[in-house]
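If you are new to this repository, start here. Below is one unmodified record pulled from the training split, so you can see the exact layout before writing a loader.
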Amino acid sequence: MNYTDILYEDNHLIVLNKKSGEIVQGDKTGDMPLSEHLKEFIKVRDGKAGNVFVGVVHRIDRPVSGAVLFAKTGKALERMNNLIRERSIKKIYWAIVRNRPPKEQDTIEHFLRKNEAQNKSYVVPQTVAGAQKALLTYRLAGISDRFFLLEIQLHTGRHHQIRAQLSAIGSPIKGDLKYGDKRSNPDNSISLHAREIEFIHPVKKEKVTVIAPAPSAFDMFLL
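And here is the target side for that same chain:
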């Protein structure tokens, strides 16, 4: 990582613009996660002799890009975790899909169950054991010659929620083979970007809004 990856920083929090392919937190691959890269970066930049605290507030999937929030103190992490539980952090995503969604805008609800072995979530009836309610709102924000741009607000934070729900309405995300798209992206990314995050600062009590510049794949809608 480098300075240009930092979207927001103060003594309590830091927001990075994650690149597709980076992992936020350690997993079974053993690859060095962004949280550890951030610790090393701060240690060198600030000349810290001891350990650097970096707490993961939330995660986005490896093939997804965009804004990821970390806490720089234990107190900030605890308070941000409370905001997560209270669903007080607003998250906006951009997704490029191959098929036009059924409506120009809609709030959709499904029940999802995660299959651990496959690392995939499935839409299931509410009565299925382990099913969790998943809720999001989308609007059609742009149209190109072959694709559609959706702006999405998450109301719940389930595993692979946006990917599974958009697939369920017939609009899988571009490049997302796991959830039904026809072709992969050349860089193995999926065209899903954590565009904006908004919250009340846990210490300053001021509203913070952070916007993550989108990867070049989204330029077809921005030119």
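Two things worth knowing about this chain: Residues 3-222 form a domain with the Pseudouridine synthase fold (CATH 3.30.2350.10). The chain has a mean pLDDT of 94.
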